[in-house]
Each structure stands twice: as structure tokens, then as C-alpha cells.
TrEMBL record:
<feature type="domain" description="FAD-dependent oxidoreductase 2 FAD-binding">
    <location>
        <begin position="12"/>
        <end position="550"/>
    </location>
</feature>
<keyword id="KW-0285">Flavoprotein</keyword>
<dbReference type="InterPro" id="IPR036188">
    <property type="entry name" value="FAD/NAD-bd_sf"/>
</dbReference>
<dbReference type="Pfam" id="PF00890">
    <property type="entry name" value="FAD_binding_2"/>
</dbReference>
<dbReference type="InterPro" id="IPR050315">
    <property type="entry name" value="FAD-oxidoreductase_2"/>
</dbReference>
<dbReference type="InterPro" id="IPR003953">
    <property type="entry name" value="FAD-dep_OxRdtase_2_FAD-bd"/>
</dbReference>
<keyword id="KW-0560">Oxidoreductase</keyword>
<dbReference type="GO" id="GO:0008202">
    <property type="term" value="P:steroid metabolic process"/>
</dbReference>
<dbReference type="GO" id="GO:0016491">
    <property type="term" value="F:oxidoreductase activity"/>
</dbReference>
<dbReference type="InterPro" id="IPR027477">
    <property type="entry name" value="Succ_DH/fumarate_Rdtase_cat_sf"/>
</dbReference>
<protein>
    <submittedName>
        <fullName>FAD-dependent oxidoreductase</fullName>
    </submittedName>
</protein>
<keyword id="KW-0274">FAD</keyword>
Length: 575
């Protein structure tokens, strides 16, 4: 492994960016005998993948098949047709569906990857072709000590989503933490987990039990090391090298000097899209405002669109006609003690009993348990023209103590610091809370009264919350009669302001089924490939299920790796 080098280097494959998609391309290429270099702009490896939930949407994956969940390829294709319309005719969809299961098998058999299934995770929407499970996989927990000194370069989880730096595995483990005060079994599991974390902090200075996206990236990094991939950190690319009509490498900026890497087979762009590129956001995201500053992405702030700009400089075309340019998600602006503000994504709390979301007029506008993408889509529709889109997530004290709210963790973690900073507004009555938030008090009182009356019966006449499989999984399985509904009754009441944000971007470079970057005439630019969020979304800018970024991203990393190694790719006829 090398973290720096001389003034030049030659390789077969140069990957720009170190998220899961780029690392997959690197691992597959190296496995088939190619010399691979991964260059990362940041001091951390892992990109957005490392702070994600780590789930991949891979229909017909081998874990589901082994569990007896067998689908014809037409089943997920039917779902995609109902979700993304004509976008399902994109040749990349066929490539994704055919090669996704093969990618999962390859990494399990030829890399340091152990998968866990998501056989009980449903698709977001109950539309034709949807499934109640069997289309999701994630990386199993990983011992960070296996990375050796490279563990210091692994991007840590989002601080606000951890307990003193300890990440909690989504699903069963998170459920045990929520139920630790209600179940002896859960309390024992949590006690053991905390004890192990305490030992790791004392012995190693950090948690070595890696989960979620951290585990996914760590396993790929370990695989890359094992296969001889050269890893360069703090090595941002400044331009692509083009020779004789093909992309032949890139110029990096390393320790204050230019550093040329020539790649005989190709350059793979995996730089994470443009979630923090104000100019691109201003052009493509209406609510981002004329300066592009009113969109608050939870992706790393180093993802500023260099990959797209470098590709455009050699003739690439950006696809900007998608349903949404970003993977929209609700975000709250959580201040830290050092003055920094974190864009905290609300992926868990909204669907729990005892929560509602209202606009400043005091009315609900959405099924709060629907997907993060749908939550913000509805907010943008509900916001008057030229008004700033935002809403308030409101919980009573019973819900806040049980589930936390936003970046504030459940009891016994303290609420006072977040109240002092103004992140959480609290009041003894709904009328007082409305005054603090600038919400119409009369409408809020009526909204909560009507919601509570129906919630006690397990009903939501306005939006049907809790009626879909996805809603129920997101709620509390122990809550009756509806997993997602509970009245707001116990004072004090709490509110957090939510604004439009994202988990990353969808608009990206136009590519073909081999992830080759296309020019203005839809012809491949020789030697240039794009995966992850540098590639335009194969979902046509929509969000049909969790994992539709990592799933296609890693699948096309696999496709690129095989293609660069001169191997055939399933379902692809090369031209």
C-alpha cells in the first residue's frame, strides 16, 4: 500500500474516488490481474458510502435465493416500470438486474466480503411488482483491526448518528437499543455491546466493531489491499489526461505538486457527484436558490463535483433531465460545540409513534412514515411559490424519550444542550410551541386533535400512515393497533426544523450499459468510465427502494472491472 508517490506513476486502471462503487471497480480489476490505483481527494477513504446505512438494492440476490425467495427477472422489472416509467427501458437497467447478483457472489467468493440479508425489507411503494423482502443486502459487521493502520484513514460514521462514536447496526441491533429499558434480552445485548465498545475505546481509541456503510467500505478496503491496489489519500485530481483521442490518465495534486498517473486501460470516475457544488445545485435544483446554498446534503462536504467538470472538459455530457437531480431527504441543521453545523438526515424518527410533521400553516402535508425522498417531494409540492420550503417535526415527550428526535438521542441522553443551541424547541403546551416556531397555533391545535383521535384507533384518514409494508417496518412492531401511529399527548412538546437536503445526487454523466461515459453524440469517450453518483441515476431520478444508489453503484463497479480486464459482461453486446 502507498499513500503517496513520486512525480508520476503508470497503472492499468485509475479510480478517482474511494466510495463503494469505485472500490468495487478497483477490487474486480485487480482480481483479474490489472495494476490499479485509487486516488481519493479527502484524507478519509470511503466517501458517502462510509457514512451510509450500507444497504444495496439487488433483486434476485443469492442470499434471498438461498432463503427460498425466488423471483423471475420480470418481477423487479415490473416494479421499476411502475416506478420509473420509460426509464425502465434504459439498457443500463438490464445490465444492473443481470449483474447485481453476480457482483454479490463475486465479492463473497473472491474478496473480504460477508453479506447479511435484507429479506424482510420491503420496497418503498406498494405498486405492481413490489416485494415485501428479498431484494436487499448489506455487509456484515467487520473487525476494524483487520485494516491495520489503514483504519485511521477510514471515514468515521456521522458523529450525531453514533453513541459516543459507536455506530449501531440498523435493524435488529437498533431495535434492541430502543427496547433496552423494556426487555431483559435487549438490555443484556445492549450491555454487552456497550462493554465491548468501552474496551475498544480504552484499547484502540475508537470502536473496532464496524457496521453499516463503515463495514461495507472497510471490507472493500481490505480486499483492495489484499489484491495489491495502491491507495492514495489527499490526492485530488485536477484534470484528465487525453492522448490520441482517449483518456489516458489524470493529473493529481499531491503535497503541493502535480502528480501524473497514466492508466493504460482506463480512468473510472467515482468522485461522489455534486452535492456540495453551489453552482451546479443552483442550475439544477430549484429550491437550492440562486447561489445554490439552500440545499443541505448529508454527503461529505468534499463531494464538490470535480469528476463531472473534468469529464465535461473532455466532451462528456451531463444528463440533467431526471425526475430529481438529487436523492432528496429531510435534513435538520444540527450545531456542534465547535461551531460546525451538521446536516443531519432524518431517516428513522419520522415514522415512529408520537411524531408528526407540519408546515408553518400548522397542517400535516405528508405520510411521515413514507420514504425520505417522498417526504421532501411532498414538502416541495406543499410549499407556496417563492416561499422557502421547510417544516417542523413535532413529538411529545414520551416519543422523544423513547426514540430521540433528529440528532438528539433518546433518554437518558441529555436534551438540554440541544435546547440551549436552539436546535430543539420545547414548550409545555402546543400553543407555546407554535409561538416559538412561528406556526399557526389554531391550525396546529386542530391538526394534533384530529391526528390523535384517529391515531388512537390506529388510523390516518388523511394519508394512510402505517398502511404499507414499508410504513410498518419503519414504525414500532410492538405498538398497537398501528406500528406507525401514536397520539401526541404528554408535555412538554418538542420540535425540530427540517429543510430539504439529500443523501447525494442523481444527475450525472450520461453512460452506457458498460458504464462508459458518452459524449454529445452518445458515443463512448475511449478510456473514460463513471460509477456511483458520477454516473446519472439508472432510476431516472426516482427512489423506488432503499439501496438504489449503492446497489447500482457497486454493480457497475463490477461491470467496469470485468470490462477493463477484457472479460465478457452478462447481458451486454459490445459495440
Amino acid at each position: 500500500m502507498a499513500l503517496s508517490g513520486d512525480s508520476s506513476m503508470n497503472c492499468d486502471v485509475l479510480v478517482l474516488g474511494s466510495g463503494a462503487a469505485g472500490l468495487t471497480a478497483a477490487v474486480v480489476s485487480a482480481h483479474h490481474g490489472l495494476k490499479v490505483v485509487v486516488a481519493e481527494k479527502s484524507s478519509w477513504f470511503g466517501g458517502t458510502s462510509a457514512i451510509s446505512g450500507g444497504w444495496l438494492w439487488i433483486p434476485r440476490n443469492p442470499l434471498a435465493v438461498n432463503a427460498g425467495i425466488k423471483e423471475d427477472i420480470e418481477d423487479p422489472l415490473t416494479y421499476l416500470r411502475s416506478e420509473i416509467g420509460n426509464g425502465a427501458g434504459d439498457a443500463r437497467i438490464d445490465s444492473f438486474l443481470a449483474n447485481g447478483p453476480r457482483m454479490v457472489s463475486f465479492l463473497a467468493n473472491h474478496a473480504e466480503m460477508e453479506w447479511i440479508d435484507g429479506n424482510r425489507i420491503p420496497d418503498f411503494h406498494d405498486t405492481p411488482g413490489s416485494s415485501i423482502g428479498g431484494r436487499s443486502v448489506s455487509a456484515a459487521p467487520f473487525d476494524g483491526r483487520s485494516l491495520g493502520s489503514l483504519i485511521e484513514r477510514l471515514r468515521p460514521p456521522l458523529r450525531e448518528a453514533t453513541i459516543w462514536g459507536m455506530a449501531v447496526q440498523g435493524g435488529a441491533e437498533m431495535s434492541h437499543f430502543f427496547n433496552a429499558s423494556r426487555s431483559l434480552t435487549s438490555s443484556l445485548i445492549v450491555a454487552r455491546r456497550l462493554a465491548r465498545f468501552a474496551w475498544h475505546r480504552l484499547r484502540y481509541g475508537r470502536d473496532m466493531h464496524l457496521v453499516n456503510g463503515n463495514a461495507l467500505v472497510a471490507r472493500l478496503l481490505r480486499s483492495a489491499l489484499d489484491k495489491g491496489v495502491t491507495l492514495l489519500a489527499e490526492a485530488p485530481a485536477t484534470r484528465l489526461i487525453q492522448e490520441h483521442g482517449r483518456v489516458a490518465g489524470a493529473v493529481l495534486h499531491v503535497k503541493g505538486t502535480s502528480f501524473a498517473i497514466r492508466a493504460a486501460r482506463g480512468v473510472v470516475l467515482a468522485t461522489g457527484g455534486f452535492p456540495h457544488d453551489p453552482a451546479r445545485l443552483a442550475a439544477l435544483v430549484p429550491h437550492a436558490g440562486p447561489q445554490g446554498l439552500d440545499h443541505h446534503s448529508a454527503a461529505p462536504r468534499t463531494n464538490t463535483g470535480e469528476g463531472l467538470r473534468m469529464a465535461e472538459a473532455v466532451g462528456a455530457r451531463l444528463r440533467d433531465d431526471l425526475a430529481s437531480a438529487t436523492a432528496m431527504a429531510p435534513v435538520s441543521l444540527a450545531p456542534r460545540s465547535d461551531g460546525e453545523v451538521t446536516n443531519f438526515p432524518h431517516l428513522v424518527d419520522r415514522a415512529k409513534p408520537g411524531f408528526i410533521a407540519v408546515t408553518p400553516d400548522g397542517r400535516r402535508y405528508v405520510n411521515e412514515a413514507d420514504s425520505y425522498y417522498d417526504f421532501i417531494s411532498a414538502l416541495l409540492r406543499a410549499t407556496p411559490t417563492k416561499a422557502a420550503p421547510y417544516c417542523w417535526l413535532i413529538a411529545d415527550d414520551r416519543a422523544r424519550r423513547r426514540w430521540g428526535i433528529g440528532a438528539v438521542k433518546p433518554f437518558p441522553f441529555p436534551l438540554r444542550p440541544s435546547q440551549r443551541s436552539g436546535y430543539v424547541l420545547s414548550a409545555r403546551s402546543l400553543a407555546e410551541l407554535a409561538a416559538l416556531c412561528g406556526i399557526n397555533p389554531t391550525a396546529l391545535a386542530a391538526t394534533v386533535h384530529e391526528f390523535n383521535e384517529a391515531a388512537r384507533r390506529g388510523e390516518d384518514p388523511l394519508f394512510g400512515r402505517g398502511s404499507s409494508p414499508y410504513n410498518r417496518v419503519q414504525g414500532d412492531a410492538h405498538n398497537r393497533p398501528n406500528a406507525s401511529l401514536g397520539p401526541l399527548e404528554r408535555a412538554p412538546f418538542h420540535a425540530v426544523r427540517i429543510v430539504p437536503g439529500s443523501l447525494g445526487t442523481f444527475a450525472g454523466l450520461k453512460t452506457d450499459a458498460l458504464a462508459r461515459v458518452l459524449d454529445g453524440e452518445d458515443k463512448p469517450i475511449p478510456g473514460l468510465f463513471a460509477v456511483g453518483n458520477d454516473m446519472s441515476s439508472v432510476m431516472n431520478g426516482r427512489y423506488p427502494s432503499g439501496g438504489i444508489t449503492l446497489g447500482p453503484g457497486m454493480t457497475f463497479g463490477f461491470v467496469v472491472g470485468r470490462h477493463l480486464a477484457g472479460l465478457p459482461v452478462t447481458s451486454i453486446e459490445e459495440t
